[in-house]
Specification:
Elements lengths: L1 H13 L3 H78 L6 H11 L12 H4 L8 H8 L1 H30 L2 H9 L28 H6 L1 H38 L2
Length: 261
Amino acid sequence: MLFLLRKIRRKLLSQNKISSYLFYAIGEIILVVVGILIAISIDNWNHKNNETAQEQIILRQLQAEYAENLKQLEEKMYMRNQMLEAANRILSYIDNPSGVHRDSLIFDIGMVIRDPTFDPIQNDLIASGNIRLIRNDTLRKILSNWTSDVYQVQEIELEWQKIRSEFINPFTIEIGIQRDIADIIWKDGYTPVEALDQNISIVNKVGPSKKAPSTREILQNRELEGIAALTITYSQIGNIQSQALRDRILLINNYISQDLD
């Protein structure tokens, strides 16, 4: 092609056809420009296709991650619901102490000292700059705010952990019911909600304490009432925040499903 163009150029110059040569030169320039534009278009097309392929990989990875995050979050919400039910029963025992079964009371106290903490899978979309590959503006914004949204839940969990470690656990040790709690929970086999393998049921014959307080003594302890009330408050707030986060995850998964090929 270049050889042919040079040949035409030499022929026009040798024939002293200036006007024809100018016309030819302009045509050659246009041809070069068109070639450059085509090359740029092909390069842009390849680049766009490459980014689209990368986006699909990221979306599939996010889909799997947020499915796991949703599963874990719902487990924590379920744990808090169990804590709420146990705390409400404890208050009913305190208000109506007659006929309260001691094992039921001990079991419910064991339920309220649990520690549901949400620890989601964290991706590096922001740090790596790959967030730019997400073309859906709404999805990109939600993903950018994810860390902040998670913190709203974890903030409540951290406050609960402090209450649990500074007040609730010391209360069960001081009143002398920790061994009874362990005995009630593990003697017939128990699988925690947060256990990785839900098919394993652990049995441990701890045995009841011979120094433990009576049902009446436990129910008359004023700290127990406060513990039950705090459990209700923090579990309720934790689940309110968790429900909002759950809605975010469902929205994220919905947008991802729409954008996946």
